[in-house]
Structures are given as C-alpha cells and as structure tokens.
Amino acid sequence: MSIALAGMLVMFSGIFVVMMVILEVLPWLNDTTKVAFIVIGLTFVVAGAVIRFKALKSEMKQQKELEHRRK
Known about the structure:
Keywords: Membrane, Transmembrane, Transmembrane helix. The chain is an all-alpha fold.
C-alpha cells in the first residue's frame, strides 16, 4: 500500500467520525464529548491530508528526477 493511499484512508476515517457525530450515531454523554469527537475526527482529516500531500510531493520529485536522468 502506498503512503498516499494510507493518508487518504486516515482522512476518510476522520470524515467518517465527524459525520457519525453530526448524524448522532456515536453516543456522547454531554457537549464536551461531542466536541472532543469532532476535534479528533478533524485531527485525523488534517493528518491524512498532510500525509497524502507529502507522499504525492515525494512521488512528483521522483518522477522529475527520472525525467532529468533520461535526458
């Protein structure tokens, strides 16, 4: 599995957690735990996006190096 795919899966799991809280599927005791679930989900979304961005940037750098070597 590539790192970009792993980042996408982390991002989607964060979106899933946030949607489950918004749709009131995940149980919570009070508003504090609801906010905590949303913050955790958004943290996963941001972390997944950063992982994916770095992986794609690294892949693009490798492609440019390969093209430069061929010339």
